[in-house]
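Work Package 3 (structural annotation) set out to generate three-dimensional models for the target panel prioritized at the project kickoff. During this period the team completed the workflow that converts sequence records into discrete structure tokens, so that structures can be stored uniformly alongside our sequence database. As a representative example, we reproduce one entry of 204 residues exactly as it appears in the project archive.
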Amino acid sequence: MTKTIQTEASPSANGRPDTQRTGTERTGTRTGMLRGRFSRLVRRVQRAYADGHNRPLAGYTVVLGGYSALLGLLTGIGRATGTRLPERVGVQDTVLLCLATHKASRLLAKDAVTSPLRAPFARYEEPAGEAELNESVRGSGVQHAVGELITCPFCLGVWVASGLTAGLVFAPRPTRLVLTALTAIATSDTIQLVYDGAKKRLAN
């Protein structure tokens, strides 16, 4: 007499045998496992990099992603509108771009008048002379990362230069007007500093 042996499938987390689980459920389980492994890897890398310091790598990633998305958007607009890159950038435009980037970066990152733009991410510390301020970054995560970006003229220079360069490609005439104005402001600031320094030397 032949005995029939029935093999029971092991139950899954939802009470149903594994053989009855849908493909979506199995895919979701695998995805969850991969996410867990990735999260643990990210935390391990962050701890090893930070070495006990507050380094918001996730916030930096968001900022970097925003910059990359902006470049991608500009590239897409250029292709959609048929805008072509110039074969070269003239010396005059390059000089204007350098001076304008310097001035715009310091206006956004250090000027007292633009402090309301930085207020959600920074804390006032003290005057830095010549209408500029020293500020400290506050918060954590994305807030801290953005704060470091907008209070650092060196960091902002990358964004400003990218924006002004894109302006030269898409709208060269109005962009050159903006570049000229910012260059004039930077030159005026330099003359003012030289003038004040000369007055102090003559007074002594």
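Helices lie at 23-50, 57-81, 91-110, 115-118, 141-150, 153-170, 172-203.
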